[in-house]
# Entry
Amino acid sequence: MAISYKSFSRDLINWYDGSKRDLPWRRTRDPYKIWVSEIMLQQTTVNTVIGFYGRFIKAFPTMKALAKAPLQTVLKQWQGLGYYNRARNLHRSAVRLMQEHRGVLPRDPEVLRAFPGFGPYTTGSVLSIAYDIPLTIIDANIRRVGMRLLALPGEANTKQDPVIKEFLLKILPLKRAGDFNQALMELGARVCASKYPSCTACPVAGYCRANRLDLQKKIPISKKKIVTDIQAVLAIIKKNDRYFIQQRPEKGLLAGLWEFPGGKIESGESESKALARELKEELGLQLRSARFLFRLKHFYTQFRVELSVFACSIKGEPTIDAAHLWVSYKDLSKYPMPSANGKIIERLTA
# Structure
């Protein structure tokens, strides 16, 4: 069956109108708030984003408020969402947009692409949803839907995107492009799921080649997720009811966030040797003693970390500067930290 592009778009949008989830960012036409939601939704589930989105918009209700806020304040509001470079780019773009466009998101895709964080997906999603500009987008959900509609073999990766984009350009309606893009994402998230697609509930199953060929559970090919296990140690150093924390470098993993000192246990090391080495490397100080407190596990996208936390005393004093501080317990919450360090603070209270 050849796909009727107009009827496909009509059937999909009609389904979306009657079945879409009531999400807070769908209740606004404010391009700024739509932009914030799209950045948050990258690599983060909808249920997780809902709470963060509400708190973030309350803290920064306008682009001007976001641009005026210190980066550390923005990162603190972002704490727990992960992928902190998203927040940095959001803040950097807000500052530039206030300076160069008076806080208005440009409608021209080429102009918007010049701002930090605006790749093809973000540009297309924000402009189509906020301004109804007919631009295609491809995320993980849309890629999977496209592969099944076209019965494309192989794994779901960017190599499939040129064929999928050519197809999307044919079915994208000139009006309600934003709703169409959201409908495709909604379809992938709720109906055309990766492991168990609900084809009987799909509004466009009749257009799907994989469904006709009974290949919907075989397309795309599942790629086994490789998760690395990491063992690490962490030092809680306390002095006169204050805790020592340090800031991570401005580039790299978890850039610019604050943490307790420590790091990965190298092959063949004991926990005590790892503690001593990390404190020597990071602070130039010797470990005097270490008392085990607790262990906790934290999960990232591609690795799991088991943290062994110790109360430590050291010989000498760490150098105190802008990136190395003694902080009271009540003030620890003011510093943006990786989620694992946030869990540690909660355990310290107990």
